[in-house]
Design goal:
There is one protein chain. This protein has helices spanning about 5-15, 20-60, 75-85, 95-115, 130-140, 140-150, 155-185, 190-195, 205, 210-225, 235-240, 250-275, 290-295, 300-320, 325-355. The protein is an all-alpha fold. Helix 4 (about 95-115) packs antiparallel against helix 5 (about 130-140). The relative contact order is 0.13.
């Protein structure tokens, strides 16, 4: 398995040899930021196209097929249209909060995206409380949603923002408990160590039934946290026009639109990292020849393959189940998912204490 830290260390050594270390670190930070933005934009285009094709597949229709080969340029045309549309300034809105809200949502996505270990030695933020930082950074997004509803000075936007805030804050509890269940098994919160410890088997197989339960709960709660169907009531078109982003146009709306898809990818990437080994190839104890062949596949291929597999599962959920009412959404969380998550956490503690895991 190739270690990208060899390349990054070589680049750092090359820069520090011809300029002060502080300037070298600044240039590296700018380059990393540009790379994250480019990957962010590229993934958004891929995910929007994938959503349309998967939606068409589940609804027995073709999806986009006119603009470009298989409709592949349709998303690019949509991006250009969104970039050129006018950003409308509201007369009675709180202009500072109104303009700040989309950037808060995007910043939350960037911070969580930077925590993902794409391959060995290819991660931006990697420290001993990585899981805790990811959960904290992802919570910033709900602040942007609440600001959007309040700053718009629109009752429909405010109701949509309050619905979304209640939903996201509620389902963050199940997401946190599911991840905490796996932290008990993993024994660390550092993403690089989490992936490295799955060299002899992915945690979803080694953690017995509690790991599978935690994976299912994480998918349900992660889908709800992204405001995606069947949990997309905060932006139900038939009730609240477009929810918290009703008054946004142009790229301000585009930021909310992009953040939804990238948050879905982040949920899938975290699931693949914690439960499915991240960039770690599939290894089976005792099959050394098979493991050696798996090691030839680059780590980033494993990472994106697993992440897009989970993305497909999330899209499958969206286009299969009807939209829930707000009381059903909150009942599912507080009456079912939270108690099950707490019991599941206790089961995982018992498994770890008595060393029943593989």
């Amino acid at each position: 398995m190739f270690d990208f830290s060899i390349i990054t260390n070589w680049i750092h050594g090359l820069l520090t040899s011809c300029m002060p270390e502080g300037l070298a670190v600044f240039i590296e930070c700018v380059a990393i930021g540009v790379c994250i933005i480019l990957m962010y934009a590229l993934l958004a285009i891929i995910l929007i196209y994938m959503e349309r094709k998967v939606c068409g597949f589940f609804q027995c229709r073709l999806g986009p097929n006119r603009v470009g080969k298989w409709g592949s340029i349709q998303v690019i045309c949509d991006v250009l249209k969104m970039l050129t549309k006018e950003i409308i300034e509201l007369k009675h809105a709180d202009k500072f909060l109104y303009n700040l809200a989309p950037f808060m949502v995007i910043i939350a996505s960037f911070l969580t995206f930077a925590c993902l270990p794409i391959s060995k030695g290819l991660e931006v933020l990697d420290f001993n409380v990585g899981v805790f930082f990811l959960l904290a950074a992802s919570s910033i997004g709900v602040v942007g949603i609440l600001l959007a509803g309040w700053g718009s000075n629109n009752k429909f936007s405010l109701i949509g923002a309050m619905r979304s805030g209640a939903q996201i804050i509620s389902y963050e509890l199940s997401v946190g408990l599911s991840i905490l269940t796996m932290v008990v098994l993993m024994g660390t919160m550092q993403f690089s160590e989490i992936v490295a410890s799955q060299a002899n088997g992915w945690f979803i197989f080694r953690g017995h039934i509690p790991a599978v339960i935690a994976f299912i709960i994480y998918l349900i709660a992660g889908n709800a946290e992204c405001n995606r169907g069947p949990f997309d009531l905060p932006e139900a078109e038939s009730e609240l026009t477009a929810g918290y982003h009703t008054e946004y146009s142009g790229m301000h709306f585009g930021f909310f639109y992009l953040a939804e898809y990238l948050n879905m990818f982040i949920v899938a990437a975290v699931a693949s990292t914690i439960f499915l080994g991240g960039w770690m190839p599939l290894h089976i104890v005792g099959l050394d020849g098979f493991n050696a062949v798996m090691d030839y596949i680059p780590g980033f291929v494993w990472f994106f393959g697993k992440a897009f597999f989970v993305v497909f599962l999330l899209m499958w959920i969206k286009w299969t189940f009807p939209r829930l009412r707000i009381d059903q959404i909150l009942n599912l969380e507080w009456k079912y998912l939270v108690p099950i998550s707490l019991v599941n956490l206790v089961l995982m503690v018992i498994i770890v204490v008595f060393k029943l895991y593989f």
